[in-house]
Design a protein that fits this description.
single chain; Fumarylacetoacetate hydrolase, domain 2; five-stranded mixed β-sheet; about 40% strand; Fumarylacetoacetase_C_sf; catalytic activity; DUF2848; DUF2848 domain-containing protein
Length: about 230
């Protein structure tokens, strides 16, 4: 009898040098989560022209397979039209502490035209290995920078204050209403505007959160295209 894959356990180094762990029970990807919903609607219209289905409401929240929460240096993809998205991740660790770290939601852009939820389940959410206590930065997210880059030369493709997105406090209320503000929950924030002049379909992706007091947390990974299937 085959067994189901076990839920992943992620480890984080905290600023004081201690370690936090979370066994991921629930993974969510938020979408269309910018605070300026007029800009969000304009973005939805742009995506619709590319064939991406429009959501019925915003912001969105997609349940994702928990095993896709990964701390990895390599993401395997099936073709050349996939890319990351710089995001923050809200983590409720095994002790019930609410942590903030960086994440990069790697997304299949071809599959996205058929269904956003499908595309989110096609590749991992790459999660940082360091984290902050959310309470330590909750009152200054306007001074925390979220950025994304591509390629070996780390060309910046995304850059904005973390509070350009709906804040973790908003999503904590949503999780509480759903009965999911519990240890083992990881929620990825949705992303910020991407520079259309930079090629997102790169062989490396990275993202970072930076705070003047607590320093920098980043992820950086190689994007590896698998061999063509025999079919």
């Amino acid at each position: 009898m085959s067994s189901q894959p076990s839920n992943p356990t992620l480890s984080f180094e905290l600023p004081d040098g201690s370690e936090a762990t979370v066994t991921v029970q629930r993974l969510f990807n938020a979408g269309y989560a910018g605070k300026n919903q007029e800009e969000v609607r304009a973005h939805i219209e742009e995506l619709a022209e590319l064939g991406v289905p429009a959501p019925t409401s915003t912001p969105t929240l997609f349940p994702i397979s928990p095993y896709l929460a990964q701390q990895t240096d390599r993401v395997y993809v099936q073709h050349g039209r996939t890319s990351g998205e710089a995001e923050w991740a809200l983590v409720i660790d095994d002790e019930g502490r609410e942590l903030l770290t960086v994440a990069c939601d790697h997304t299949d852009r071809e599959l996205e035209t058929h269904g956003v939820a499908w595309s989110k389940n096609a590749s991992p959410d790459v999660i940082g290995r360091r984290a902050w206590l959310y309470s330590d930065v909750a009152d200054r997210l306007d001074r925390v920078t979220l950025s994304g880059w591509v390629g070996e030369d780390r060309t910046v493709i995304q850059n904005a204050p973390a509070d350009a997105l709906l804040e973790p406090s908003y999503w904590l209320e949503v999780l509480a209403e759903r009965g999911e503000r519990e240890p083992g929950t990881v929620l990825i924030s949705g992303t910020i505007t991407m520079d259309g002049g930079v090629d997102q379909f790169a062989d490396r992706w990275g993202a970072a959160l930076e705070d003047a007091e607590l320093g920098r947390i980043e992820v950086d990974y190689e994007v590896v295209q698998m061999a063509a299937p025999i079919e």
